[in-house]
Amino acid sequence: MKRTHQNGELRLSHANEKVTLVGWVAKRRNLGSLVFIDLRDRSGIVQLVFDETMEESVKDVRNEYVLQVEGIVSERKDKNPKLATGEIEIKVESIKIINTAETTPIIVADETDALEDTRLKYRYLDIRRNQIKNNLILRHEVCLLVRNFLSKLGFVEIETPILCKSTPEGARDYLVPSRISNGKFYALPQSPQLYKQLLMVGGMERYFQIARCFRDEDLRADRQPEFTQIDIEMSFVDEEDVWSVVESLMREIFTQVKGVNLPEFKRLTYVECMSRYGSDKPDTRFGLELNDVTEVFKNTSFEIFKNIIDAKGIINAICLKNGGDKFSRKDLDKLQDYAKVYGAKALSYLKYSNQELSGSIAKVVSDDEKAELIRKFELAENDLLLFIADKKKVAQTALGALRTKLGHDLGLIDESLYNFLWVTNFPMFEYNEEENRYVAAHHPFTSPNLEDVDKLMSNQENCYSRAYDLVLNGYELLSGSIRIHDQKVQAKVFEAIGMSQEEAKDKFGWFIEAFKYGTPPHGGVGIGLERLIMILSGTDNIRDVVAFPKTASASDLMSEAPNSVDEKQLKELGIKLNK
Amino acid sequence: MKRTHQNGELRLSHANEKVTLVGWVAKRRNLGSLVFIDLRDRSGIVQLVFDETMEESVKDVRNEYVLQVEGIVSERKDKNPKLATGEIEIKVESIKIINTAETTPIIVADETDALEDTRLKYRYLDIRRNQIKNNLILRHEVCLLVRNFLSKLGFVEIETPILCKSTPEGARDYLVPSRISNGKFYALPQSPQLYKQLLMVGGMERYFQIARCFRDEDLRADRQPEFTQIDIEMSFVDEEDVWSVVESLMREIFTQVKGVNLPEFKRLTYVECMSRYGSDKPDTRFGLELNDVTEVFKNTSFEIFKNIIDAKGIINAICLKNGGDKFSRKDLDKLQDYAKVYGAKALSYLKYSNQELSGSIAKVVSDDEKAELIRKFELAENDLLLFIADKKKVAQTALGALRTKLGHDLGLIDESLYNFLWVTNFPMFEYNEEENRYVAAHHPFTSPNLEDVDKLMSNQENCYSRAYDLVLNGYELLSGSIRIHDQKVQAKVFEAIGMSQEEAKDKFGWFIEAFKYGTPPHGGVGIGLERLIMILSGTDNIRDVVAFPKTASASDLMSEAPNSVDEKQLKELGIKLNK
Fold first, then answer.
1. ipTM score of complex
2. In Å, how far is B441's CA from the nearest CA of chain A?
3. Which residues in A lie closer than 8 A to residue B554 (C-beta atoms)?
4. Is 80 exceeded by the pLDDT of residue B220?
């Protein structure tokens, strides 16, 4: 018998039982000839106590040694209420050293001051720490829950290929040279998008996959070169059907994992969302909404505002109730610097105090305009107005970023809330300055809004799509869309992004060919698994929820991948290094 | 309401209900102005009936059109007992053509005479066929069952990287050039072997993963360049613990999927298995075992046998009861040709008839030897003995292959049986003629048998390991081992395969470093998922259980991957084609 119990499960109710335990030495201290050892396994820690004179070998036992012990569960005199097993200890009768351990480069404890690079190099030691271990277990539990939940709804999990075809019109692909077909390459999938749509053509009706995806992009803090997506696709559906599945899935996850009954999922169109929050992934746990006050200044004599309005820009404002005394002139300059990062040229402000507005633009704003602002915002003593006047997109984005910063800095956020928001009707296209053409904002298989189909060729800018995001507390948790199932519409969309029929056939021919043979209406989502686990576990570091993560330069500090390979391997693949 | 029911679930009990259905036209026929359409969705087929004069549009409806219909469930006059919904039909009141379809390149029906290449090119149509669709659903169900079963046993599913480090000592890796570190490469994992062992070092104790694996090898009929493995690893275990988990998992799968209560899992060591069946993955659903009759011929005057025995070869025989008249001289020549493929130089035979042995070696076998054969095999009228005399390995392998062929050809196999067999104690090393050294037979982290540790350096040939396979009906379903957890033993094994300390450090340093810090005893298995689903679904074509399979030349006929990529992409990766 290697073990009779998990260490972490022992309680006072086990008192006087003889147990066999295994685990790692988490801590060791001597008290005279008595030795106390905290023995850790995956389930937790239990205290061992024994007499050193009993077994010579114990003298050598150090941290992280692997032990097997036999002993009697006994009630402790000095109970430790912080430990689940703190009411008992094990009076050890025999001990066996299963393996030794050198001094570990990082300490296996809840708190660590080890550099992250060291933790990544010795990831197997980092995984012994509760923080990482528990995140991995949580990730497992959520995945299992997702699989069971979707399966009950009739979804079938289907594995799609990792060795795929390189497709244009997306992020950068990871490539895999072919040995059998020298000079040709596979690409690792950025998502199973095309395959899942083909499964809908194939009549699978309800598909999902917890799927590995790959993007060879320069990594931001919250990205990994390989990541995992809860990928869902459904046939014979519209937006409401997809959202209903996602909402019920999220309710199940948050009930099971957090014990939380989620409030209603709000909805905003992209246009509404940008005008109210200056972001397509707003944190709606606090107010501080944006207000378009262009109308207030329509006859302004303040030249800067006037020029912006004439150039079809807007004046955007947020009102900080009772915030006037929270910001010095210097603070406001810093806020302006912050706004400038997002392209704003300036941040103006007005404080309301003693029935009067003072501040950076107090002298150039007319009395009528002031009165209108006071009325509109129902200004009270010590309120603060912040203005950004600029091109619409800049005024929204910069003030939206400022809103988020203020929400955090001023502690306006109720961290106990989980505010879900559907953002819908995204723009169909966005203009790519570099390529001097419109490109698909989501991907070119996203259905345009039915009423916008006629605008596809003539008015791309005002063409909206059936793409949607689900936002949670300011993070984009998923995105998805209803897809095109009509070949004629697909042809128009390709044309709208400047792709000739020949080009479309060359790039996506194998895919659009499928749509000739009876394609059902379909749509779906891809949910960022790491993001979801990060939110559920309360970490803001994606590497805390990945077993063996990579650094920002896409390298694995533990195995030292990527690495150099033999010349022979390259020769077989028909490639050579381009030095 | 897009649909009220799945087509395949409608029964007589639904009679007179008004239903809305969707699906694909599987068949259409006219009877006067009446039109009958078989409407197919994922759940099955239901018959629609309606009057063509009612709706003009119906005239155009052809196979694989996508329809939405409303109608009343009605009892059929001419019931179809072959169809689950065969007692009813839908009297259609309204019909909507959701999408049209061109004539499909393959017919969507259970039986197909389409070439496999055509089926692979139009895989999305092939998936509409019950055979493929049902296999994919079965695969999903088995995976879900495996996940739930292992989770209940405390196993945690953990995703290990796909972008890994290229490791020597295995099959050929797929490589992925790095853009950020030009000149360096990732490798796709042949299995999560090293990562799962590091998870054991990391204290996860019970890990599993349904993991994608990759091998860039020339493909046999039952291989794919990417395949899936039910990967399991456990700490603080020996063979019995691992086997117990696997056996209970297999029992659960076969009970749930096949309604079969599996018989006892038999066990044989590799040596026993080779001597009794001439194979390390024997089909034990029939007898026809091999017999070493070297002893019978120890004093033979038959020079060929004598020379073989002197050279430490063996004489191996199988006895075909009542098989004497089943084989003409020509048939036996063909069997000999078959044996020669496996390296045998000749196949000898003796028939027993009228109390006498006749046949190819009747004249050179002495009367004493004949008497001994008659006694040993309890020969009766019309029995047949087949002999291969050769080096032990050849005599076993060739006669083992012949045994399998005879088992199939003579219909000796009871197809209803699921005979599981653990083959244990595999050789630790095998001699690689090309490299002129011993290499690890399993992988270099496999533990030697404890009693063979002393032989590691001096007697590699007779060193056996704690590696095991699970064989089902002649197929290797999984392989696994207890791993080395003792650094000293690991060092010896590297030395035994001719790897210097420096070389070992260079190749596996990052991995063996981990073993310094308290490594628990551990072991596990990798179960071939495709093989398991093939056996459960009764197909012998691996491509029937993979959604989007590749051909023997590792290409995807549907997407035409691999393909050529832009020069720009290669430049970013720091590689060029070696023409």
1. 0.95
2. 22
3. 163, 178, 180-181
4. no
